[in-house]
Design a protein that fits this description.
There is one protein chain. A 6-stranded antiparallel sheet has the order 3-5-6-7-8-4. The two termini are 21 Å apart. It is an alpha+beta fold. A hairpin with an 8-residue loop joins β7 and β8. It contains 4 helices and 8 strands, in the order ββααβαβββββα.
């Protein structure tokens, strides 16, 4: 399955096919990884495509995040990313696969907001989708 011209990882497809790619019943893993959240909302393939395109369009209007060498990668390249989930209404915190490091094993990143929104940056939350699934309890 392809989204944004990128082949989705087999492990993500397996989570979807098994019915595990959904909000976990026990939110403790999500709460540990994301202390402020409105829940984890994993996307369907169709929503992955539309949300990736929508955030990519925001980039064309001007960046909402800054590179940060202390918290790599800091930025995102939407030509090599797929948005796969978010943290609920009002949090504006997408979770994405970042294919820059590997086309076969993309890392999982999220947008971290600064207090005033001036130094927002993308940070790695898991080395791959299965590591992410384990952290949040899928």
């Amino acid at each position: 399955m392809v989204v944004n011209g990128l082949l989705l990882p087999h492990d993500l497809l397996a989570l979807m096919e098994s019915g595990r790619w959904k909000a976990p019943l026990n939110p403790s893993g999500v709460d540990r990884l994301f202390p402020e959240n409105g829940g984890l909302y994993p996307y369907s393939v169709e929503l992955m495509e539309s949300e990736t395109q929508a955030l990519s369009n925001l980039l064309l209007q001007g960046q909402m995040w800054q590179p940060d060498s202390d918290n790599p990668p800091g930025d995102i390249d939407f030509r090599l990313a797929v948005v796969v989930a978010d943290l609920g209404m009002g949090y504006d915190q997408p979770v994405a696969l970042d294919f820059r490091v590997s086309r076969d094993w993309p890392r999982v990143i999220t947008l971290r907001w600064s207090e005033r929104g001036e130094e927002n940056h993308w940070v790695v939350v898991a080395p791959d989708i299965m590591g992410f699934a384990e952290l949040v309890g899928l």
